[in-house]
Amino acid sequence: MATDSSQAFKDRAARSILNHPVKCTAKDTGEEFEAICANVSASGMFLLCSAPPAAGTDLAFRFVEQGIVLIQGEARVARVVASTNSLLGAGVFFTALDGPARRLIERVIDLNSDSARESAQMAPPDRPSRAQLSLDLE
Question: What would the pLDDT profile of 79-130 be if each residue is shown by its tens digit?
Fold first, then answer.
């Protein structure tokens, strides 16, 4: 029989593992810090960093790649937990995302979620990929 906490874990929103740097600013102090987004869902993300802000802190965040802001928005720290490699984790939930940012996050989740990977592994390919063809020819 599943416990309430394990059931809540199973019922949580679909998420995608993501290993992408995020630039964050605590809105109350203006303190900036960098984190790694370990995973993202439609409602929030899990950040890894050396010194996350306290629960309840409002953040502005930006995913930046080669100087281009891919996604930006605002979030609130819901919890801070010990994680791996001497980093701490912060679960945050989105408080403000514009339409394009929300659509991009949803697309990433659709492509990379656990359920998408499971169904891709179970479904046979329509036709062999080039990599499969080259392996068959050798």
Answer: 999 866 678 899 999 999 988 899 998 998 888 865 545 554 555 555 444 4
| Residues 75/47, Cβ–Cβ less than 8 Å | no
**Contact 51/88 with Cβ under 8 angstroms?**
yes
pTM strictly above 0.90: no
Correct CATH for 8-137 of 1.20.1540.10, 2.60.40.1640, 1.10.1040.10, 2.40.10.220: 2.40.10.220
φ, ψ of residue 43 to 5 degrees: the values are -105, -15
Spatial CB neighbours of 110, under 8 Å, sequence gap ≥ 6: 116
d(CA 43, CA 23): 18
Domain extent listing, the chain: 8-137
Residue 41, classed as helix, strand or coil, is: strand
Closest to 57 (Cα-Cα) out of 65, 49, 68: 49
**What single letter denotes the amino acid at residue 7?**
Q
